Amino acid sequence: MKNILLATALLSIAAFAAGCKPSTETDRVAAQFDKAKARAEDAAQSMKDFAYAQKTEFVAKMQSQLTAINRDVDQLSAKIERSSDAAKAEAKPKLEALREQAAKMNKQLDDARNATTSTWDKVKTDSGRAYDALKDDFKRARQWASDKIAP
Description:
- This protein is mainly alpha-helical.
- The protein has 2 domains: 23-53; 55-151.
- The protein has helices at residues 2-20, 24-53, 55-81, 85-113, 120-148.
- The N and C termini lie far apart (117 Å).
């Protein structure tokens, strides 16, 4: 009887201890989750680093595009100068607005040149938007000039 009682007590203690021990399956899932999370964070950082590494190329491309638009604005301005006084007067604010936007774009490019890894995404997005707005406004100004000024 004493042996049965002792055996039952030992089995009860073993069952209790086994029940308190965390499941090895749960441990494996948690470890896999932690590894996956670490890999995802590493991948995200790698993508940021890659995008930031492209900064020089982005700035050079945007500078080239801005130079081309400035050249086109100068050509449009020369065309307007050869037109009537009324067209010149109407075109003057449009040209000034384009030149102001080009100046803002130059500032955006300076910001892009000086961007850090943490600010790069925002600066890149802002620069892209500023360039798109300048390009669209230039297209509208060129269309206006084509409509108002004889070739």
